[in-house]
Amino acid sequence: MKKWSFVIPVAVLATAAFLILAIRGHWTSWQSDAVVQKTDDAYVTANQIPLSTRISGTVKAVDVHDYQGVRAGEPLIVLDDADYQAVVSEAQAAIAAAQAELAANQAAKHAADAQVQSAASGIAQAQAAARAAQDAIAAAQAQADDAASEYRRVHALYANQAATQEQYDHALAARESTQAALQAKQAQAAQAQAAIASGETARAAALEQRAGLNAKDRALEAQIAAKKAQLIVAQVNLSYATISAPASGRIGKLQVHPGQLIGAGVEVVDFVPHDPWVEANYQETQLRRIRVSDRADVHIDAFPGRTFHGHVQEIAPASGAATALLPPDNATGNFTKVVQRIPVKIVLDDLPPGDLLRPGLSAEVAIHTNDVQRAAQTAATSN
Question: What is the pLDDT of residue 26?
């Protein structure tokens, strides 16, 4: 009897030690090979967007209250925009003044064009008059030459008393008359040349004025473009006076109140859009079979008895410890091995309407790892 009282405890202890060693040696493999991977380290999460001011000003109105649901584009907070409206009006007036000056410059360009055309027409007329004067000079020169030749002949006859006084006077008068006509035609030609020179000068001045107006045109157009850019900036700043919801969701606690003077970049309220997902933190030993698109069942503590269905959208590229603000430094001091957890993003396929799921709610997740693998195997077999 004493012998069995000693053997039985030893056998029990040996069996227990064997079982512990066997489980310890194969637990990780068993856990990794599980078809359904479960974790209760999971939470509902969503983007939490801090809405801030882009400009400084006094809070004119707060159109919402704490934790209110809002629609996309709905005004939340309105700043006093009188100063910014004045800047917009000033920019618009500056553009109108510059455009009026540009219109006046366009009229001056048309006047300069008319002056250029008038000068060109005057030059053409003067050139025609000069050509006519040259033709008249040629004719008058021929008449003057004939009259001078006749005068010399009559003068010789008169000296020899072969011509009468009347014939001599007539020849002299003809010579002087044709000379006067020739000089008159030459004077007309000189006037025509002077008119041509004057027209050329007027046309050059008009062209120079036109070039100056063209340069002024470009400068005014550049000013208008700059003033339009200033107007856009002023209008954008004016639009910043109203802070609106970027999407449908729910706001947090308001940080500002009517009458409060705030500067640019001040956070006024947190915004949570209606697009929650579940972040499940799986142990590193559970990830071997988990793939993107695996089916997942989600149980949320706030809704007992209800199962939400979703799928794996992404698996984090690093563990939570590696991406922490102060990651552990295992190269110094004593080392204790700790199983790391990797965040897995679960997107719900049957997202409930409204905002029943709110960031921070606890959840339990079960990922069916065989779904994607079975589909891949089926596709490989069919090929």
Answer: 47
